[in-house]
Amino acid sequence: xxxxxxxxxxxxxxxxxxxxxxxxxxxxxxxxxxxxxxxxxxxxxxxxxxxxxxxxxxxxxxxxxxxxxxxxxxxxxxxxxxxxxxxxxxxxxxxxxxxxxxxxxxxxxxxxxxxxxxxxxxxxxxxxxxxxxxxxxxxxxxxxxxxxxxxxxxxxxxxxxxxxxxxxxxxxxxxxxxxxxxxxxxxxxxxxxxxx
Length: 196
Fold this sequence. Notes:
Layout: H1 14-21, H2 34-37, E1 41-43, E2 54-56, H3 58-64, E3 78-81, H4 92-104, E4 109-114, H5 121-131, E5 136-140, H6 149-163, E6 166-170, H7 174-178, E7 187-192
Parallel strand pairs: 4-7, 5-6, 6-7
Antiparallel strand pairs: 1-2, 3-5
């Protein structure tokens, strides 16, 4: 039982979390706060007079247990891309040095890779990311349903920040994915095809 009462439903509450984390009476939860925005915690409905139960997102539990797998909710649109041997004309080292200098100054980086389909744009992005010591998660935005867009955006960015990954956005909504987001990732690639 929780909170000293056998008759009460057993679920974690904000009051219990505050005590465990040493927050005293300071509130650590609000529906508009960071824990909710990043989908770390969710608050379920409660009976009248009861403290609402808090629920940790299952992916966060997996992460805390050491998992580096992609969130199950993202498997339809996201995958890790392994680096391969770069083509001789690819400027992997030069691009890597420029990005590294910008990262040292705390600047986020967005690199646009424009080329025909199957020209190696994602592989180039994976090679650059690898040269910087991180992996690459490729996201096909055409596989994200409109009603899921906000949730998937948050979860992709959350995954990248938790694991130190770069993200390569491709598909019909790649520009949308990169535009107007409050959270700038350290390294993002926009994978586009030439106009026309």
